[in-house]
Amino acid sequence: MIPFLDLKAQYLSIKPEIDAAVMKILESSQFVLGEEVAGFERDFAAYCGARHAVAVNSGTSALHLALLAAGVGPGDEVITIPFTFVATVSAICYTGATPVFVDIDPSTFTMDPSKLEEAITPRTKAILPVHLYGQMADMDPLLEIARRHDVAVIEDACQAHGAEYRGRRAGSVGVSGCFSFYPGKNLGAYGEGGIVVTSNDEHAKMIRMLRDWGQEQRYHHKLKGFNYRMEGMQGAILRVKLRYLEQWTEARRTHARHYSKLLAGWVGAEVPVEAPDRRHVYHIYAVRSADRDGLQRLLQAEGVHTGLHYPIPVHLQEAHADLGHTVGDFPESEAAARQVLSLPMFPEMTAVEVEQVAAAVRQEAYVV
Ligand SMILES: Cc1ncc(COP(=O)(O)O)c(C=O)c1O
User: Fold this and answer.
1) Which residue out of 61, 110, 159 has the highest number of ligand 1 atoms within 8 Å of its CB and is therefore the one to mutate?
2) How far apart are CA 80 and CA 100, in angstroms?
3) Per-residue pLDDT, 317
4) Whole-model pTM?
């Protein structure tokens, strides 16, 4: 059996440091925010090349607060892609704004800049590109269009810790960037977690207040806030794990190169593209197949666990039927949703396991 990911193997590889970090929290009783969270914020801001980082309790909360800090509210529109995890769109809805979709570039699964301008209206307040699977969107053309229309760009970097675009790190390119530390992410907590990274002092100050009931000072509530604070335990664990992130990312990139070499040119499974100006961090390694469901069933029979990210684009989800979209509105997103299959990908995988998965795919591709 080859699992899709193996969180236990990673824990065991750093167990003494993690156990010590957890003990430190138990002994200090700093269960919510506290010194370890503050230390992690400093470390993560530096890692991203941004001035501030504000730790929260999920990637969804990070997106919600980053949008509020950019002034997004009822009556506004926020542009994003439909081929993403539903949280991107839910966070827009939390603010009272309306999500507006732009289709993806089929080679990178990220926002197609050539389709952005036609989606902008006088109500557009922000653009929320998603760095899907760990590869950053084509940011320069998006930023240029945003600048001309005076709208904010916020990065959904929930899958892209350490990804780069023309030498710039995810999270440091837009006015702010939002990350998730859900356990399976490239940098995963042992529970829920998220963070907003920004070099804008005003946004950082507002997000810091909003995550903690809108208070600047205890019991002085300047804003209508939320309980979105990060737990001390997660901060302490993430601080340890951040020290290994580059090493883990390089392992993912090695596995991806290995997969792509073994699967190159094979009919029935198209390998992912890393754009030449980007550093893909391979949160997900997704191949495209015309018979995706058949390939998944056959891999399952061979003991290879796979995933679907994501089988239904958000514009066709029942929860967002009120937006009034139908099949055919975003053909590239719909085609991707039918064809993508995520292969096992985690740093602790061995080269032999990569070879076993690739051999199974090649064998099944014949059947296709
Ligand atoms: C692209 C994207 N956006 C937002 C989120 C939401 O993050 P979280 O699950 O931490 O709320 C996730 C992760 O699940 C994600 O993959």
Assistant:
1) 159
2) 6
3) 98
4) 0.98
